[in-house]
Automatic annotation (TrEMBL):
Annotated family: Belongs to the methylamine corrinoid protein family.
Gene Ontology terms describing biological process: homocysteine metabolic process; tetrahydrofolate metabolic process
Keyword flag Metal-binding: yes
Every B12-binding domain range: 87-209
Keywords carried by this UniProt record: Cobalt, Metal-binding
Name of this protein: Corrinoid protein MttC23
Amino acid sequence: MSKITEVKELVEAGKSKKVGAAVQEALDAGSQPGEILEAMVASMSVVGDKFSSGEIFVPEMLIAAKAMSKGVDVLRPLMAGDSSASLGTCVIGTVAGDLHDIGKNLVSMMIESAGFTMVDLGVDVPAENFVKAAKEHDNVDLIACSGLLTTTMPALKEAVATIKSSGLTGCKVIVGGAPVTPEFAAEIGADGYAPDAGSAAVKAKELVG
Ligand code: B1M
């Protein structure tokens, strides 16, 4: 079995204690960090499909998510790009009612590696907390809101509306997450949308540059 396949299977099985070492072995065997990350993201899709079909339940999803986070911890230092550029500060969080953070963490890592200082508010972030954080920190030019559930899309809308009516002039808002489309992002008044972590970093630079 290739090392990447092993990582994929360990994440799917939620083997948190073994994933870090397997990721390191895959790297040592010559796999690229991006390749390993892609394999782990694919594992989470398998986990999601198994949940949808009733084969597994919430605890198994949670355990798999923890395992993926362990793998990401090993990759994080290798994915950090040239952060010598200072593009300002970005406040990021997953919107109210939503506990999914793996995608948000990847987006945060990529925006940081593009040259931003990140203020990560975590998950289940009330709309007004994005504004509060943006006012409390210096040079916040960007707020990034993640949402993974169709049921929390209204919370994304509320977050954007609250930020836009807060008097934070010049602060751009980017949104994303699996159920979010470019059309929805435009409809709720976001300045930007990105489908994945890599393009979120590109869009972040575009919006602020
Ligand atoms: Co949940 N969950 N979950 N879950 N979960 C999904 C999202 C789901 C699709 C599974 C399924 O049914 N197939 C489904 C949503 C269905 C829907 O809304 N239509 C679902 C559900 C239903 C639920 C619960 C309601 C289940 C229940 O309780 N009955 C519940 C809700 C809890 C809550 O949030 N209030 C729930 C709970 C959980 C856990 C807590 C157990 C766990 C999350 C743990 C954690 O995050 N620490 C979990 C997990 C792990 C998943 C799946 C399996 C994996 C999510 C993930 O991490 N993917 C997921 C199925 C799936 O995704 N296929 C699922 C990997 C990650 C890298 O991808 O997050 O999409 P993603 O991020 C991508 C892009 O979306 C994008 O870039 C990222 C990287 O490329 N992106 C952005 C994300 N944010 C962005 C922001 C941007 C730009 C791009 O700009 C700001």
